[in-house]
């Protein structure tokens, strides 16, 4: 009877080999092709996307143009796309409600969440110091990068393509905001808006409180200098301040 020989099957990759393969497949800083695939676009001039990923910290260290100018443009592109969408899709809503919806949708928190879904942090080009202090995970850097990416797509492929991209990425969140299923941080949103105009943060003060110790109600105001932007109530100081920030966003006083 012939001796049975063991067949030489395909060797299973070792843990070290799997780890090495995973590193090869992971997106690298500045990998424009991988980013374009995630965004679902075909860039004609990839230099714009490359610049959108370059944080200002890398300008000196790596001699690369930073994404700050693109961020400036992308902020306006994002505002226009969402303002147009909300105007057309909510013909019966007043300006204040539309403003509130847009303010939440373009906030740093929302844009940073979108960036994390796309794994944008891995694509960012950062200086060594920024890298070591957690820059890839910082909300402000991620949100700024998203605005710069929108500008890059606008410059490269035009308004129609960037509009489709923005609405595809943000539509689910817009719908959640409209259904009030997305609880925004109104204080953060208001601070972003106020600092962009006045270069100083708003201040909050509790102007009154009432009720027994176990059921207090607080009334708070938010101000810039001596000007009252809004007021709100809540069962805690924090809730009252959030309500005041929301009131300011709904009024014309925060602009």
Architecture overview:
The chain has a three-stranded antiparallel β-sheet with strand order 1-2-3, with helices on one face. The radius of gyration is 24 Å and the shape is globular. Helix 5 (68-89) packs across helix 10 (139-157) and helix 7 (108-117) packs across helix 10. A hairpin with a 6-residue loop joins strand 1 and strand 2. The protein has 13 helices and three strands. Helix content is 58%, strand content 9%. The chain has helices at 15-25, 32-39, 47-52, 58-62, 68-89, 95-105, 108-117, 120-123, 128-132, 139-157, 159-178, 186-198, 237-250, and strands at residues 203-210, 217-224, 227-234. It folds into two domains: 27-178, Ribonuclease III domain (Ribonuclease iii, N-terminal Endonuclease Domain, Chain A), CATH 1.10.1520; 197-250, Double Stranded RNA Binding Domain. By secondary structure, the chain is mainly alpha-helical.
CATH topology of the largest domain: Ribonuclease iii, N-terminal Endonuclease Domain, Chain A
User: How much helical structure, as a percent, in the residues?
Assistant: 55-70%
> Mean pLDDT across all residues, rounded?
86
* H/I helix tally: 13
- Estimated radius of gyration: 24 Å
Strand order of the largest sheet: 1-2-3
Described by strand count, sense and barrel closure, the largest sheet is: 3 strands, antiparallel
Number of domains: 2
Low-confidence stretches: 18-24
Total strands: 3
């Amino acid at each position: 009877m012939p001796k049975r020989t063991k067949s030489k099957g395909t060797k299973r990759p070792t843990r070290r080999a799997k780890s090495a393969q995973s590193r090869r497949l992971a997106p690298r800083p500045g990998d424009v092709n991988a980013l374009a695939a995630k965004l679902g676009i075909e860039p004609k001039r990839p230099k714009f996307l490359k610049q959108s990923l370059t944080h200002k910290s890398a300008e000196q260290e790596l001699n690369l143009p930073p994404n700050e100018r693109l961020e400036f443009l992308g902020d306006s592109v994002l505002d226009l796309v969402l303002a147009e969408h909300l105007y057309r899709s909510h013909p019966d809503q007043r300006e204040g409600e539309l403003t509130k919806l847009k303010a939440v949708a373009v906030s740093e928190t929302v844009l940073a969440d979108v960036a994390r879904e796309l794994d944008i942090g891995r694509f960012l080009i950062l200086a060594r110091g920024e890298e070591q202090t957690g820059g890839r995970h910082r909300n402000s850097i991620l949100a700024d990068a998203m605005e710069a990416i929108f500008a890059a797509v606008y410059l490269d492929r035009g308004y129609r393509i960037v509009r489709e991209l923005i609405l595809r990425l943000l539509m689910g969140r817009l719908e959640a905001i409209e259904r009030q299923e997305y609880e925004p941080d109104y204080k953060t949103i208001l601070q972003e808006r106020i600092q962009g105009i006045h270069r100083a943060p708003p201040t909050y003060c509790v102007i009154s409180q009432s009720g027994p110790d176990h059921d207090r109600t607080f009334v708070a105001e938010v101000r810039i200098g001596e000007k009252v932007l809004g007021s709100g109530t809540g069962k805690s100081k924090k809730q009252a301040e959030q309500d005041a920030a929301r009131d300011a966003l709904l009024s014309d006083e925060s602009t």
